[in-house]
């Protein structure tokens, strides 16, 4: 389910960062809201503001729809909602770019002799091309997107991702993401997490995860470096 984006060499000692993609390295918030509202229009749900989205959004995503609808969608409803969102999202994603300073942070982390990888719930077949488009694939030991169902969280995906990283043990991994689910996945895999407010969640919702919450990716990287192993 995964792809080795590096040389296959054993990683050196030190903190390893696992980056999230959507809402973290990839600043696609406006695209997500536009695609969400376009898909809502197809299933008779009212449009949503960014503020409301950040209050309600959660993973697994069917729970987000439960918060909106007052009930979980049926399997048939979920299939329609999921297809509509992804159809609109991938039609718009080319207009989004990397988060401010992301490319420099990736370059500097690699240049310092430390390692990083990318673990995302974005479909793997879409993730690899868009990462390549932004010219950052070589910064990662490994890039893993989702290949299974889209109605699950990241926890088991993170376990598989870390298992595929030669020489990286979970105890020296820091996950940087924009969702509470990133912190849940990190804890499940035996890693630590830092959450970033620039993506899908409000600061208040992120703080409930009980991990450091920061307002920039630079702060997240500083925290990972300070933790050092």
Describe this structure in words.
This protein has 229 residues and is α/β, with parallel strands linked by helices. 45% of the residues lie in helices and 16% in strands. Strands 1-6-5-2-7-8-9 form a seven-stranded mixed beta sheet, with helices on both faces. The chain has a two-stranded antiparallel sheet with strand order 3-4. Helix 8 links the parallel strand 7 (173-177) and strand 8. Mean pLDDT is 92; it is low at 1-11.
Properties at a glance:
229 residues, alpha/beta, seven-stranded mixed beta sheet, two-stranded antiparallel sheet, 9 strands, 16% strand, disordered N terminus
Number of helical stretches of at least 4 residues: 10
Helix- and strand-based class? alpha/beta
Q: In which range does the helix fraction lie?
A: 40-55%
Work out the strand percent: 15-25%
Head-to-tail CA distance between termini:
29 Å
If you average the pLDDT, what whole number results? 92
For the largest sheet, list the strands in their spatial order.
Answer: 1-6-5-2-7-8-9
What spatial form do the alpha-carbon principal axes imply? globular
- Major sheet size, sense and barrel closure: 7 strands, mixed
List unreliable stretches of 5+ residues. Answer: 1-11
Round the Cα radius of gyration to an integer and report it: 17 Å
**Overall number of strands:** 9
- SSE ordering: EEEHHHHEHEHEHEHEHEH
């Amino acid at each position: 389910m995964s792809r080795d984006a590096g040389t296959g060499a054993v990683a050196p000692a030190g903190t390893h960062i696992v980056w999230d993609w959507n809402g973290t390295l990839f600043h696609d918030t406006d695209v997500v809201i536009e695609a969400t509202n376009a898909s809502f229009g197809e299933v008779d749900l009212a449009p949503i503001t960014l503020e409301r989205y950040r209050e309600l959004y959660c993973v697994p995503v069917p729970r987000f729809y439960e918060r909106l609808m007052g009930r979980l969608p049926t399997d048939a409803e979920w299939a329609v909602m999921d297809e509509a969102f992804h159809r609109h999202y991938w039609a718009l994603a080319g207009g989004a770019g990397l988060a401010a300073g992301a490319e420099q942070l990736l370059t500097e982390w690699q240049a310092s002799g430390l390692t990083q990888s990318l673990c995302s719930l974005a479909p793997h077949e879409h993730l690899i091309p868009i990462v390549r488009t932004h010219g950052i694939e070589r910064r990662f030991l490994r890039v893993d997107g989702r290949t299974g169902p889209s109605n699950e969280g990241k926890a088991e995906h993170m376990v598989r991702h870390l298992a595929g990283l030669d020489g990286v043990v979970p105890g020296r991994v820091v996950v940087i993401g924009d969702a509470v689910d990133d912190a849940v996945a990190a804890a499940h895999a035996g890693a630590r997490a830092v959450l970033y407010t620039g993506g899908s969640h409000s600061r208040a919702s992120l703080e409930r995860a009980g991990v450091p919450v920061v307002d920039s990716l630079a702060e997240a990287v500083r925290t990972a470096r300070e933790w050092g192993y």
